[in-house]
Amino acid sequence: MGYLYKQEIFKLLKKRSFWFCLLFIALQNIGVAIFSQSYSKFLQPKFLFQYDFVSPAFISLILIATSATIISTEFEYNTIKNVVMQQYSRNQILISKWLTVLTYSVGIYLFSMILSLFDKFIFFNNTFSLVDKSEGGTYLVWQSWLISNGATFITLWLILSIVFLLAAVMKKGALAVVVGVVGYFALEIISSLMFVLISKWDFLKWNPLNFLNYPGQLVRESTLSELTHLNNDQMLMGNIIYIILFMAIGLFFFSRKEV
Prior knowledge:
Helices cover 76% and strands 0% of the residues. The protein is an all-alpha fold.
């Protein structure tokens, strides 16, 4: 399976879209930092730094598309037949793709964090300190920054696990991309209704969408925990369990999928 993983990484690095996405994240990250420097009265640099100057939102779209297409393109171009005919099992094929996206996601998150540090020391060195209190006063800025990135990464992988599942079931990646994107941005729209339903039927707190509130709850625990009916430990474990569950279901369908 090590060879399959190296092969997937090689194919990823050969794509022009890979380098375009990295360039886009760099320009977007630095651009938002410069914009917030010019309009600091309206955009708080310290707050934007804690969220990598909005880069995670764009990274999520990139990884959702990558997760869907890394499987669907194999079927669309019939290259899956060549891979299956080798000595590797279908499980090994899919796991190698998971590991590739995991490597990509870790790398691009670290890339955006390094860029954010660059922005802080170049544009905002005298504006705020990493040891200042963050918004809300619970954590220091650097602590809130790491917590935000870690929690956002986990909830992103909850979405990616669903995207992988859909991509493993279907031969077209478009629907998987749409579901992933809608799921990422729909939380703000449906959260109010979801919280009302949870307050009436407590068992609904275990639905997957509720666990996407994990990053926000870490920062505003006293407020959001009353709405989600879950504590931080439950949020973390719930995300991990759902990720494992969805990916296991995807592995089951992929192993039985007609080539």
